[in-house]
Design a protein that fits this description.
By secondary structure, the protein is an alpha+beta fold. The chain has helices spanning 71-74, 209-230, 278-293, 309-327, 334-348, 356-359, 362-382, 388-399, 411-422, 425-436, 442-452, 461-464, and strands spanning 5-6, 31-38, 41-47, 54-57, 62-63, 68-69, 75-77, 82-87, 90-95, 103-108, 122-124, 130-133, 140-143, 148-149, 156-162, 167-169, 172-174, 176-179, 185-188, 194-195, 200-203, 240-245, 253-260, 263-269, 302-303, 408-409. The chain has a six-stranded mixed beta sheet, with helices on one face. Strands 7-10-3-2-15-18 form a six-stranded mixed beta sheet. It has a five-stranded antiparallel beta sheet with strand order 8-9-4-13-14, with no helix packed on it.
Length: 465
């Protein structure tokens, strides 16, 4: 049986351009959007606070499979004199003449398919539960003369209602949801969530029985361990996990999803996941553990600039490995870590790690961030720590906003913690040189650094000899 493995990486705010909104001009009234599900289907009614030649949707990415604008496949404008048009790569509500009416109603069928570099507009579950992404209802004024979106505009206040009953939002049930958060999902239907002290999870009931059983076991353990070792995550409500099952599609084995503030979506599909499979299980576990780590490294604390992305991505990598080892004593990350070291060696010759994002060498952030994390882990162990969790816990505790920090972890913060653990200023200087200046021999230099904290690593035995 042919298998196609699909892993969808997490999407971040940097994918989308920064937009100035009414948060910068608090006296400007918001656009109000009422999204309603009732006996007649789904509708979104836009109440615009001012006249405009058009209203554009900043998030207008194409549907991956159809390679077209997804709204034109699922939205119908009911208001006379207004149409939905695709202008270049932007969806726009335009008036036939003059300005757009202050009230516009759209009927839609939730679009539950993949987009290119954006979150799925809807996540559909086999029991009828459906989650809508809030960000796809946000709008900005459109300038007809210049055929472009305005640089500033009001924020969008979104109201969600379901005639059938309450909604699930940020881990809690509500009769209606009003929010300006354009980066989360609101859940419609009557799901039976799994709720613990550290998360709320919805797992599609048609998920293959063996995989559903593993998720019910692994998810609570993952978030309990993270909370225990790193402290409670910042933000309101409990973290949510939405795991959907797209069916046993022939010749496919697909596991992926995305991470949002306080919410992780997982999408599973393919006949390759129907029968119990150890490799598939480890892939699902690792994806959840890595993305779950971002609720702390990435949300409770953020990185300062793109040059520091390795702190979050490599950190989440190593936390995921250590977490799975704790949950499953038979798990051995040795082969994967060996590949990661070799990837870092290959991508670092003459290339400073700080420039990886600019070069689009994103794998370097993951691989070399993991390697540097193992050096930090060794430093923590020389100081009485158990593993990399102790190093990260100190960084999170010292820099989280809700404890008086600035909410970011810079390379300066990371190196400061390295010195605090190791007492080795020279090690910090060597690591800083690797990050900002690069090296012609990364194997020699990285192996020397990990040897300074009393550890060895894959690919370092020959150098040690």
């Amino acid at each position: 049986m042919a298998r196609i493995v699909v892993m969808v990486a997490a999407l971040f705010a940097l994918v989308f351009p920064a937009i100035a909104t009414a948060q910068d001009a608090p006296d400007e009234p918001p656009v109000r959007v009422e999204v309603v599900h009732g006996a007649g289907g789904w509708s979104a009614t836009f109440h615009f606070p001012s006249d405009a030649q058009g209203w554009a949707f900043p998030r207008s990415n194409r549907a991956r499979r159809q390679d077209s604008g997804w709204r034109e496949l699922s939205w119908t404008v009911e208001t006379d004199g207004v149409s939905l048009q695709r202008i270049d790569e932007t969806d726009v509500l335009l008036a036939d003449d003059g300005t757009v009416p202050r009230k516009v109603t759209v009927r839609f069928v939730p679009f539950a398919d993949d987009l290119m570099a954006d979150y799925d507009p809807a996540l559909r579950f086999t029991d009828g539960t459906l989650a809508l992404f809030t960000g796809h209802f946000a709008v900005m004024p459109w300038l007809r003369e210049s055929q472009e979106m305005a640089e500033e505009g009001p924020e969008t206040e979104m109201v969600f209602r379901d005639a059938a009953g309450p909604l699930l939002y940020k881990g809690q049930r509500h009769q209606a949801v009003t929010t300006v958060d354009d980066a989360t999902y609101v859940v419609f239907g009557d799901p039976q969530p799994v709720s613990t002290g550290h998360l709320t999870a919805i797992i599609d009931p048609q998920t293959p029985a063996w995989l559903r059983r593993e998720l019910l076991d692994f998810l609570p353990q993952t978030f309990a361990i993270y909370a225990d070792r790193l402290g409670e995550r910042a933000g309101s409500g409990k973290p949510m996990v939405l795991s959907s099952w797209a069916g046993p599609t022939p010749n496919l084995y697909s596991q992926g999803g995305s991470v949002l503030p306080g919410l992780l979506s997982v999408r599973l599909e393919g006949e390759g996941l129907v029968a119990e499979d150890a490799s598939a299980l480890q892939g699902v576990r690792w994806f959840i553990a890595h993305e779950g780590a971002h609720f702390w490294l990435g949300q409770t604390v953020e990185y300062e600039t793109d040059a520091d992305a390795w702190i979050m991505e490599g950190g989440a990598n190593l936390l995921a490995f250590r977490l799975i080892e704790q949950v499953d004593p038979e798990y051995d990350a040795g082969a994967q870590l060996a590949n990661i070291w070799q990837t870092c060696f290959a991508m670092s010759v003459g290339n400073p790690l700080s420039g990886a994002s600019e070069r689009r060498d994103y794998d370097a952030n993951y691989a070399c961030g993991t390697v540097l994390g193992m050096i930090a882990e060794g430093a923590a162990q020389t100081n009485g720590g158990r593993d990399f969790f102790d190093f990260v816990a100190a960084l999170v505790a010292d820099n989280r906003k809700d404890a008086g920090g600035d909410g970011t972890v810079s390379v300066y913060d990371w190196l400061g913690q390295l010195v605090a653990e190791s007492g080795d200023e020279e090690l910090a200087a060597q690591l800083k040189h690797f990050v900002y200046r690069g090296t012609d021999d990364p194997q020699r230099d990285l192996c020397a650094m990990i040897a300074r904290v009393g550890r060895s690593a894959p690919g370092c035995a020959v150098v040690g000899d």
